[in-house]
Amino acid sequence: MVTEVKSEEAQQDKKLDTAVETVKPVTAPTKSEAGTAVAEDEANVQKVNVNTAQVSQLMNIPGIGEKKAQAIIDYRTQHGPFRQVSDLDKVKGIGPKLLDKMKPYVQL
Questions:
Q1: What is the rounded CA–CA span in Å between residue 101 and residue 85?
Q2: Strand locations in 17-105 (E)
Q3: Is residue 6 part of a domain?
Q4: pLDDT tens digit string along 4-61?
């Protein structure tokens, strides 16, 4: 019986050892790794042409809801096509912070 108990303990210890070996430590990415991940994400983003997009398409840009999408279209209708992405800051409700957030998702 003592042999059986030791045998069971040995099996349990072996299971624990196996479980511990399969666990991988989780670490936060370094700044360069995080930058690479962001760059890869931005490369995979489907960009929206703000000179031709409809409201529903513009709403796919982070930070742009229905009202701002309509404001982009209204500005475009009144002033013609955007010549550069930075021109979006002339649209009511789009400031420097939102423009920076939008840039990876916008094309002309």
A1: 12
A2: 48-49
A3: no
A4: 555 666 565 555 444 444 444 555 555 555 554 555 555 677 899 999 999 999 999 9
> In terms of residue numbers, what domain contains 62?
48-107
pLDDT at res. 100: 96
Whether 53 is covered by a domain: the verdict is yes
Length of the chain: 108
The tokens of 82 are what?
């955007």
- What is the residue whose two structure tokens read 């979006």? 88
Q: Six-digit token pair at 97?
A: 């912070």
Helices (runs of H) and strands (runs of E) counted in the chain: 5, 2
Q: Could you tell me how far CA 78 lies from the centroid of its own chain?
A: 32
The pair phi, psi for residue 89, each rounded to 5°, is -70, -5
